[in-house]
Amino acid sequence: MNQVPPIIVIVEDEEAHFELIHRAFISARQFPVEIRHCPTIHDAEEYLPTVSEKRLYAVIVDWNLPDGHGMDLLRKVNIKAPYLLMTSFGNESLAVEAMKAGAMDYIVKSPEEFLRMPATVQRIAREWSNIRQRTIAEEALRKSEGQLRALIDNTNEPIWSIDSAYCLLAFNSAFQAIVQVLTRKNVFLGANVFEYLADDGPYQRFVWQEYYDSVLRSGKQRIVEQQQEIDGRMIDFEIALNPIISFSDEVTGVVVFTRDVSERKRSERALREREERLHVALQEKNRLLEELERQKTITLQAVIEGQEHERSRIAKDLHDGVGQMLSVIKIGISAAEEKIASSSPHEASRLRESILLLDTAVQEVRSVSHQLMPVALKQLGLSSSIHDICSSITASTAIRIDTELSALEQRFDALLELTLYRIIQELINNTLKYGEANRISIQALREEKALLIMYEDDGKGFDMQAQRIGLGLHNIASRVTILGGTVEIHSSPGGGMAATIDIPLL
Length: 506
Fold this sequence. Notes:
By secondary structure, the chain is an alpha/beta fold.
């Protein structure tokens, strides 16, 4: 598709001159153009408004025309294209007047100038285009600066900028307002920014100069926080200092943006206070829980010590009281049996049966007394005492007991030994009462700072979810707690029972 050629309008009343100009454009063939001829100002006034701005390339106007001066056309019609003024004579005053009217140039009519007309028009068209582009850019810049100025002025936060000599380049109304509140001074462009510091002594100047200088040196943003009392209210400011960088990448100044962060700071302080209160409350809660746990342990220990004391008393009463009485009765019956052995054999036989029952009772009393108060524990230690329990059980039942107690052969604290003895004793009794087991396994392992007891039987087990833990297992857990240890019990119907006890060693 062929482009529509641009239009050059020639306002010239002398036909000969028009023809010379016209032939010059035809002969030049520098670019395709459409030449339009207007002999008078009136003709030009009627024609020019009908031409599209995009097609109008240039207007060439003669100074003297039948209905006025070429300058009159320039004043009457808003020509959005470069125009050239022609005269038959030239002088400086005319040139000045033409330029004031907006003409790009003027020429003095001559055959030589007519021949150069295409080149002249191209030149002024380029200049016009450059000027127009620059004008558009400047207008856009002015508009952008105006919008930026409006934005900055309508911002409630203080904004200002300085050059490398600390002189004010720009500021908004919020900056001016806060300066007036703090210093009672009016702000002026070009003034040294340090003139508007609040009366806080040289320290403030030192601080702000360091802020400015750090940005001027590094060319990097710096963000600081400050507090300032304004109208009796302490305000927290977040201050962002940004470098002003020229087209040559030089730091020429600093622009400062401030933001009131008082509400955020209050929220942060309130949050910290709540966290501190929560921390204190949590510490107090933990302290109370620890104290409660300590009191619980003390109570448990006291209860168990009381139990042991009562066991010891009952064991002594059984051994020294009931046991001795049964022994005395046995002696008396034995003496009676000897006296009537010859005279009444039947009665003597009945007495011998009573003596055997008394022997069994005495042994049972001694066994119960021994279980209640294991004398061997003090003399022989924990490992031997547990072996005694196991031996007595295997001697009287069909249960097999496997043990690995080498870790218990060394002596421990008396309380620890007694507590472990009772724990293992309770586990065995629990199996005997409820387990219906054929085999029991007891292992003791010594770790670096702990003692591990593993107990297992092959009994009928129980459902840990459906069945409450019995008194025996509860007593075991209580005794483990006193020692500061942990106990894990696992069982299932038909799967036996297993207990793992972990006791720390100090």
